[in-house]
Fold:
Amino acid sequence: MKLTVAQKIIKDHLVTGEMKKGTEIGLRIDQTLTQDSTGTMAYLQLEAMGIDRVKTKRSVAYIDHNMLQAGPENADDHKFIQTVAKKYGIYFSKPGNGICHQVQLERFSVPGQTLIGSDSHTPTCGGMGMLAIGAGGLDVAVAMAGGEYFITMPSIVKVELRGRLKLGVSAKDIILEVLRRCTVKGGVNKIFEYCGEGIKSLTVPDRATITNMGAELGATTSIFPSDENTKAFLIAQDREEDYIELKADDGAEYDEEIVIDLDELEPLIAAPHSPDSVYKVREKEGIKVDQIAIGSCTNSSFMDMMKVARILDGKTISENVSLVISPGSRQVLNMLAQNGALSKLVSAGARILESGCGPCIGMGQAPANEAVSLRTFNRNFKGRSGTVSADIFLVSPEVAAVSAITGKISDPRDFINDFDDIKMPERFIINDNMIIEPAEPGNDVEIIRGPNIKPFPRGEKLTDIVEGKALVKVEDNITTDHIMPSNASLLPFRSNIPYLSEYCLAPCDPEFPKRAKENGGGMIVAGSNYGQGSSREHAALAPLYLGIRAVLAKSFARIHRQNLINNGILPLVFKNEEDYDTIDLMDDIRIENALDQIDSDEMIVKNMTKNLEYKVITDLADRQIDMIKAGGLLNLIRESNMKNA
Ligand code: MIC
Ligand code: SF4
Structure:
């Protein structure tokens, strides 16, 4: 059989199941990554599994999100992660070393291998020809312990790039174009595989911009072949030995095809408040801008920063603009410092932030009320910046840099003459002294736990009757930023679910946590694509803590659905979407014979208040049914450990 790049990697790593679209498959995982805002929980779960040492080829723990240290909580969590990493055989990337995806791409990514990470933008390393997938922290912990990672065998979308990008148009515009065409729910259970003549002119970091933001499609992942450009990047990272060539077989079959003519692409912009609300920059030209932020795991590579430095060289930014720049990694920052580009950025008036997520996750730099902020990031969900009334637009580094000078949204094609002098370096500065090696097996490293680490909630076994009130009713495309908001004041509590749960779904309905507690838990009712966005399992753990037993939705985002199942919460999809309209807040919802019903693909849910019955689709694999019955994956693992003891 002729295979695509993704199918080849899946075939090489398949442990359970068959490569049959829509069925569940289990994959062997070579590498894992965690970051600090999901990592604390993931490592608590790893500890609960009772293994001595990780079984992966390489696991890395990064500190990049919770970088503001306004109190001791974040630094305490960093210490916990550092000591756990040392003990269990995990490499530890210190705060300041860079954003997990950027550093993973530079220093650890290997074409042909599998990677899962407790962050939805893990597909960044798809730019290196890895099968790189975002997952909940518990799934990552299981993979570290040597377990498989289960996904639905995805369909493969061929994205053929033709021609070459014009000056002022960049990789960001390619992924914005894909988002414009496919939307934020268009990628569920699909892999976007890039090919065609057009990929030859894209460097690995360009490709990584595209695979990174493929997360916004809801896709399982995105991937590029491994070719001469991959080799050049690996040589420049002094890792030539990691190179293998990887390309799709001639005649490989795809499920869908998209063709993008790069010559015809123009600078694009995603308008508030969704990454798929895409326009031409020309259509938004002239809008006054208050803040510009350049960085994030989407656009913070050396080449991106060099283009920005080139545009800002000798200029001063508009008096009304605050420009913040966070280079993606210490390697990038160091390169800019060494070649003088950093000085150009500073001279133009940029505020340089440390290498980390920063404003992308609301860790500082919240814009002013009603401000317009132009960002090179990947998400512009309402309130994510820390300012609910702000309007966030997503753009390329080129658009951001020229707009910083003019003070309004501007098209770079009117300002740039050439980037000819900007070349991929033949050799990056290699300095891994902020990556701490793990201790030898059999060590006695002491794990340091701060007082902010609270036990995480455990699910309960499925009962035959599942009932409760509809405690909240929300619309389509609810993000995990709605379910479990993240900002500078909440992120320090990522290891404290009782505290976080007070804010669960608060942007949609601030009374929900109180109502849930008063009623001893119940159900969530939601529209389509519920739980899109991040991989944070806190969006399942906080509802679990509040006693949520089921979520009835029109459809779910992939990672969030699995996080619910991992925690023993039923994800139920309305068979008839109109049923959603008949449920009102506080209706009594009841599932009878749940223990029998769970074994089939559909269940009957009763609305006792309205005297109505709904058919819901469960579509659970046998393994997932076991998890729901056990009250979550950790309980299941414990049960099987007990059986084997
Ligand atoms: C995000 O971009 O939303 C995050 C913060 O990186 C999350 C992880 C988290 O919530 O900690 C993600 O993308 O998974
Ligand atoms: Fe960090 Fe933003 Fe990337 Fe999430 S999207 S990993 S917050 S830079």
In short: The mean pLDDT is 97. Residues 46 and 141 are 5 Å apart (CA to CA). The pocket of iron/sulfur cluster (ligand 2) is lined by residues 65, 99, 119, 121, 296-297, 357, 360-361, 377-378 (CB under 6 Å). The longest helix spans residues 73-88.
